[in-house]
Description:
Blueprint: H1 4-11, E1 19-25, E2 33-39, E3 48-56, H2 59-67, H3 79-82, E4 89-97, E5 110-113, E6 116-117, E7 122-123, E8 135-138, H4 140-143, E9 146-149, H5 155-159, H6 161-169, E10 182-186, H7 191-206, E11 214-218, H8 222-238, E12 242-246, H9 253-260, E13 265-270, H10 275-282, E14 285-293, H11 306-312, E15 315-318, H12 324-335, E16 345-350, H13 354-362, E17 369-373, E18 382-383, H14 396-403, H15 409-419
Parallel strand pairs: 10-11, 10-13, 11-12, 13-14, 14-15, 16-17
Antiparallel strand pairs: 1-2, 3-4, 3-8, 3-17, 4-5, 5-9, 6-7, 16-18
Helix pairs in contact: 2-13, 6-7, 6-12, 7-8
Amino acid sequence: xxxxxxxxxxxxxxxxxxxxxxxxxxxxxxxxxxxxxxxxxxxxxxxxxxxxxxxxxxxxxxxxxxxxxxxxxxxxxxxxxxxxxxxxxxxxxxxxxxxxxxxxxxxxxxxxxxxxxxxxxxxxxxxxxxxxxxxxxxxxxxxxxxxxxxxxxxxxxxxxxxxxxxxxxxxxxxxxxxxxxxxxxxxxxxxxxxxxxxxxxxxxxxxxxxxxxxxxxxxxxxxxxxxxxxxxxxxxxxxxxxxxxxxxxxxxxxxxxxxxxxxxxxxxxxxxxxxxxxxxxxxxxxxxxxxxxxxxxxxxxxxxxxxxxxxxxxxxxxxxxxxxxxxxxxxxxxxxxxxxxxxxxxxxxxxxxxxxxxxxxxxxxxxxxxxxxxxxxxxxxxxxxxxxxxxxxxxxxxxxxxxxxxxxxxxxxxxxxxxxxxxxxxx
Length: 427
């Protein structure tokens, strides 16, 4: 029998607040990102109002902070007047709807958002207010880009579908094949690199990638590499895969790379946004190999040696986001238990800590994804391993999983039951 707190939260069985907290960006730089309280946006006749349950932070958010109104997606947008509300990796619950809104949207229904609204040449988290708000409103345009979520799936699981969909989309044209033996994640020690690693391990478990025997992860951060090796090394070994973690800034890097892959790699995912690094990596690509350009490289950068690509018979593919079909595919995998998107959750945070979380993302100090819960205000940035201290009276089984860095639906529910409070002064 669900607790009254959990039941009320899930079903939105409480009066909505008159005001809401929101992180607003009014220009370039972190000094222009402020937490303010505003009247809760009300839905117009065709609009839906929603509660943001979770929002995972993305490096793309930090690009908007760095560029402010100069960001390409904000061309013609008055950021000083209308503000930007970041956040596109969001999980929402319908809280209210206008009299003429689509009747298929019902209070308590849950959705995720495909941020790129290509039909309207805009995007959620840019010129359309995104997920770093407690309660918001979407018009008919955004409603076309909402994807329904089964209520049994966790809030963080749902919000993490978006970055996982970007990973999945990057393999749409050229995936790992049964003959590929060596996968190299170049610059792969961070959150997105770990997703590519987990995906490869998951494929191996299903019987795909039968020849895969080595995954190399390179990163300039020794701490990240140690964390990757500790967390994923035993699992890889159990699947017959050798996990090799190397730092390019180490004196013996070249020698160790020659030992690890004397003939090169079959598949390289470029996660370092530095053209020269990517070009150097391509030189280690075997004949018939694939180079997957995943990092956010700037337009116009890098040299392309067309003849080399032609004679080495390389495939080069690029990706900078996902489409609705990719999100639906990953969501179904998560709902069926095929993919645990929560495996990417590394740090849990309340709403006040969102700015600090974004600063951690910008400085590349976050080893895995940071998930913000807007309905919980005062939880500081907390590694999953330390969440046992934030969730009182949690059962031993849950505490054991948290201590191992595993964020779960059960942990999320326990946190909300312990820390969420109904809007002040309301029944």
